[in-house]
Write a structure and sequence with these properties.
The protein is an alpha+beta fold. The protein has one domain: Jelly Rolls. Helices cover 16% and strands 36% of the residues. The strands form 4 sheets. A 7-stranded antiparallel sheet has the order 1-2-13-10-15-8-5. Strand 1 (14-18) and strand 2 form a beta hairpin. The radius of gyration is 17 Å and the shape is globular. The chain starts with 13 loop residues before the first strand and ends in a 9-residue tail after the last strand. It binds 2-oxoglutaric acid and fe (ii) ion (FE2). 2-oxoglutaric acid binds next to strand 8, strand 10, strand 14 and strand 15. 2-oxoglutaric acid (AKG) is lined by residues 113, 115, 124, 129, 142, 144, 151, 170, 188, 190, 202, 204. This is DNA-N1-methyladenine dioxygenase. Its cofactor is Fe(2+).
Length: 215
């Protein structure tokens, strides 16, 4: 179970600031023991209502290469790649993690997207978290548990400005905060890594704007 002792943390932060984007990374936001307990809870049967979705591309049905779940305040629904997700009510573990993320970052979040990468064959393709309901400058706080995976960022205008690909290896118990302007100019992905056999769970905390929300 996730308890309030999660708050006793003095993690250090690494800042990256580049044209059109900035992110802060806390490699050891949670120590190994706390991170282990969070991962065990997230993978416990029934703790998270994982979904297996299918996207349709040119008439073909393709399984999403990971499991997902969407939790948030009532009515903060979300849609991406044609998949509509109704917000499930916050549970205690997610509420506690959100409070700690808010305390560290100074930002408020009202929803969280969870991704479960069963092994290195699961992935997320290049994208930006720029859906209209996230508002003009979405701040995204990303928590990682389990297998370390590479997280890549690329500038949309890299062919013009020559900015190189950026790589972070997101550690077990780490927090990554992508600042608001980043989603406009940068894309990110989590590529397949066939050598990775362990599972990974990622939580991206978001703020869904009621007025920009599309029904
Ligand atoms: O798993 C990750 O680290 C990234 C997930 C992500 O980019 C997303 O859910 O939008
Ligand atoms: Fe994303």
């Amino acid at each position: 179970m996730i308890t309030a002792d999660l708050f006793a943390s003095t993690a250090t932060c690494e800042r990256t600031a580049l044209p059109g984007g900035a992110w802060d990374y806390w490699p050891a936001w949670l120590d190994a023991g706390r991170a282990d307990r969070c991962l065990a809870w997230l993978l416990q049967p029934g703790a998270i209502a994982w979904r297996r979705d299918v996207i349709r591309i040119q008439g073909r049905e393709i399984p999403v290469p990971r499991l997902t779940a969407w939790y948030g305040d009532a009515g903060r629904d979300y849609a991406y790649s044609g998949i509509a997700m109704q917000a499930l009510p916050w549970n205690r573990g997610l509420t506690t993690l959100r409070a700690k993320v808010e305390a560290t970052t100074g930002h408020a979040f009202n929803a969280v997207l969870l991704n479960f990468y069963r092994d290195g064959r699961d992935s997320v393709a290049w994208h930006a978290d720029d859906e209209p309901e996230l508002g003009a400058e979405p701040v995204i706080a990303s928590l990682s548990f389990g297998a370390e995976r590479d997280f890549l960022l690329r500038h949309r205008a890299r062919r013009v400005n020559g900015l190189p690909l950026q790589r972070l290896t997101l550690a077990h118990g780490s927090l990554l905060l992508m600042h608001g302007v980043t989603q406009r100019h940068w894309e990110h992905c989590l590529p397949k890594r066939t050598g990775v056999v362990g599972p990974r769970v990622n939580l991206t905390f978001r703020f869904i704007h009621p007025d920009q929300h599309t029904e």
